[in-house]
Amino acid sequence: MGGPSAPDDLELGHRTQEWLASGDDPRSLTTGGYWYHGERLRPHRAVHDEAFQDRLLEALAMETGTAL
């Protein structure tokens, strides 16, 4: 997503991914997680709500005609 209302700096957006992929910092040597600017953050609670995820997949399948 871009433009003047973009939520992040294009130059900074890739640095966390690079750090996670190539770094040897012990904090980067983990599996999973939600990272933003080098910090592990708590994801939205819906990440752990399987009923919500099922409803979302059903709605997306209806909208796109593609079932998963």
How many β-strand runs?
Answer: 2
Q: How does the major sheet shape up? A: 2 strands, antiparallel
For the CA atoms, what is the radius of gyration?
A: 16 Å
Q: Could you tell me how far the N terminus lies from the C terminus, measured between alpha carbons in angstroms?
A: 26 Å
Proportion in helices: 25-40%
Could you report the average pLDDT, rounded to the nearest whole number? Answer: 86
- Taken as a percent bin, the fraction of beta residues is 5-15%
Helices, by number, come to 2
Shape: extended
Structural class: alpha+beta
Whole-number tally of structural domains: 1
Helix-strand sequence: HEEH
The poorly predicted ranges are none
Q: Topology of this structure?
A:
Layout: H1 15-22, E1 34-36, E2 39-41, H2 50-64
Antiparallel strand pairs: 1-2
What does this structure look like?
There is one protein chain. This protein has helices at 15-22, 50-64, and strands at residues 34-36, 39-41. The protein has two helices and two strands; from the N terminus they run H-E-E-H. Strand 1 (34-36) and strand 2 (39-41) form a beta hairpin. It has one domain. The protein is 34% helix and 9% strand. The protein has a two-stranded antiparallel ribbon. By secondary structure, the protein is an alpha+beta fold.
Question: How would you summarize this macromolecular structure in one to three sentences?
Answer:
The chain is α+β, with helices and mostly antiparallel strands and 68 residues long. 34% of the residues lie in helices and 9% in strands. The protein contains two helices and two strands; from the N terminus they run H-E-E-H.
